[in-house]
Write a structure and sequence with these properties.
By secondary structure, chain A is mostly helical. Chain A is about 85% helix and about 0% strand. Chain A has one domain (about 1-260). Chain A is globular. Chain B has a single domain, classed as Rossmann fold, CATH 3.40.50.300. In chain B, the strands form two sheets. Chain B has a six-stranded mixed sheet. Chain B has a four-stranded antiparallel sheet with strand order 2-1-4-5, with helices on one face. By secondary structure, chain B is an alpha/beta fold. Classes of the chains: A mainly alpha, B alpha/beta. The interface of A and B includes residues 17, 84, 262 and 264 of A.
Chain lengths: ~260, ~250
């Protein structure tokens, strides 16, 4: 445990000095600040930010994650020659990446949005902003864990980066296409439950659904919207969503840990 | 004392270590020699636990250690020239490794940094350091805790002559202090200068193990370089001879 904290701390120090994390924070800050300043109201800003968040967080987390692991390869070897357990090293590596990325996102998006809370906005908007921040945090953790799996499993840098991008493309775009195809093919049948199940299985879709349902307009999204709202409004629905997100963090983390434990360096 | 029993490691089809049995004693310098790809680095990484062998056992001071982590407390490792991308400075890296090792008392980092003239480079980020300077930082990391076992993988590659000779003095002093030192090198004069014992690896097998003087006497050569070349020639001859025998048998049958 102590070693994990030490390694995480060094990961954070190293990330804090790199330019990409500054750029990442600055981008989110400028985007949110701009939308708030010129768009005016929080729910409009969140609606615009949502699409950026859903595409950019997974992409940046998985690309930065894989590249950092590849770049630190020699460094990891040096650490493995110390009296450290491989499990601690893997956990430290994960937290040293996921925490700075999360902090960058929370600072960049959270500060401009939360600073204006209280003054003009209603309480519902607070829930909306918090849901946006929470889903962004979950996506960061999920895609960092996936990055570690890819980079630990494949030694070839180009191949690993390709696999990472493919994963991102699957989750961000192809999955929705498949979902639409399913809906179109079976359009004569009642599809609320299958669609609900499918949108829980993909973390990006799940994050989108969770944030969308916090909008006032969710009630206008027709029958399916009503089914969704009814489901996620219940304790069962929320715990299903939370467990799906948790599963998407823990499953790749566990898999990566297993590969890391057996790997030859 | 390290003992390896029947260690086998395969990378896919390729057997890198083929049931190797070896013993390394304290107070001696053993050079692991062999052509490129003969398994020298894999042997070191197996001892360190960086590479996990398919089968076999390893004992340090009689204790089975394979798969553990604690035993690396008594090992200092100097890898082949490492390319650190990390933006830690040299000083921070040294502090970090000391921190990970729980600040053992009697750390020699200051003495070693002075020895290798590292003072002007300590504040620089690792990725900006030259290969040789990084190698000096690696030397500090390997030696600073007075480890009982030192594993040096081509340690002088990239070092300038002054640093290399400082380094060799350091290795000899450590041997006098009763440490067990294992090193690989392609520089035969260096092996001749440092090593008491030679392990010659070929295609994953221990082809020769013994004192360097013994190797010279056996092959009737004056220098290690020629003795090694002779070993390889003999090996090729015997292989050719076996092949010839095989063919003769085949035709006569």
């Amino acid at each position: 445990m102590k070693t994990i904290i030490k390694l995480t701390r060094y990961g954070i120090i190293s990330a804090a000095r790199s330019r990409w994390i500054l750029g990442y924070t600055a981008f989110f800050f400028l985007a949110s600040e701009g939308l708030m300043r010129f768009g005016g109201d929080t729910s409009k800003a969140v609606a615009s930010l949502l699409n950026v968040v859903l595409l950019l967080i997974p992409l940046v987390s998985i690309v930065i994650g894989t590249m950092t692991v590849y770049n630190n390869r020699d460094f990891t070897e040096l650490l493995l020659s110390q009296p450290l357990k491989r499990g601690s090293l893997f956990a430290g590596q994960y937290l040293g990446l996921a925490l700075p990325l999360t902090a960058a996102y929370l600072l960049g998006v959270g500060v401009p949005l939360l600073a204006r809370m209280g003054s003009t906005d209603s309480v519902t908007n607070a829930g909306l902003v918090l849901m946006l921040l929470a889903s962004g945090t979950a996506l960061t953790h999920i895609f960092t864990a996936l990055a570690l799996v890819v980079a630990t499993r494949y030694d070839d840098r180009a191949f690993g980066l390709g696999a990472a991008l493919l994963l991102w493309l699957m989750a961000a775009a192809l999955y929705d296409g498949i979902m639409l195809a399913v809906i179109w093919t079976f359009r004569d049948y009642p599809l609320e439950m299958p669609v609900l199940a499918m949108s829980i299985l993909n973390p990006i879709d799940l994050a989108r659904t969770l944030v969308m349902l916090k909008f006032d307009v969710a009630a206008l999204m027709g029958y399916t919207g009503a089914v969704f709202e009814k489901f996620f409004g219940t304790a069962l629905g929320m715990s299903a969503a939370a467990s799906a997100l948790l599963f998407w963090v823990l499953a790749p983390f566990g898999l990566g840990m297993k590969i890391f434990a057996k790997k030859d360096f | 004392m390290i003992e390896l029993r029947n260690c086998t490691k395969r990378f896919g089809e390729h057997t890198v270590l083929n049931g190797i049995n070896l013993r390394f004693e304290a107070g001696s310098v053993t050079a692991v020699l062999g052509p490129n790809g003969s398994g020298k680095t894999t042997l070191m990484k197996t001892i360190l636990g960086l590479v996990r062998p398919e089968s076999g056992e390893m004992f340090i001071e009689g204790e089975s250690v394979l798969g553990g982590a604690e035993y690396r407390n008594v090992i200092g490792y100097m890898p082949q020239i490492a390319r650190f991308q990390d933006n830690l400075t040299a000083r921070e890296l040294i502090a970090m490794i000391r921190d990970i090792r729980e600040n053992p008392p009697g750390s020699r980092e200051e003495e070693l940094c002075a020895m290798f003239d590292l003072a002007p480079h300590l504040g620089k980020q690792l990725k900006t350091l030259s290969g040789g300077t990084r190698q000096k930082v690696n030397a500090v990391l390997a030696f600073m805790f007075n480890p009982q076992i030192l594993m040096l993988d081509e340690p002088t590659a990239g070092l300038d002559p002054i640093a290399a000779s400082t380094f060799k003095d350091l290795v000899l002093a450590e041997r006098e202090a009763g440490r067990m030192i294992l090193l690989t090198s392609h520089i035969m004069s260096e092996v001749h200068e440092l090593a008491d014992t030679i392990v010659f690896l070929l295609e994953g097998n221990v082809y020769f193990q013994g004192a360097s003087a013994e190797l010279l006497a056996n092959t009737g050569e004056n220098t290690l370089e020629r003795a090694i070349a002779r070993l390889l020639q003999e090996k090729n001859h015997s292989a050719a001879f076996e092949l010839k025998n095989l063919k003769t048998q085949h035709f006569s049958a």
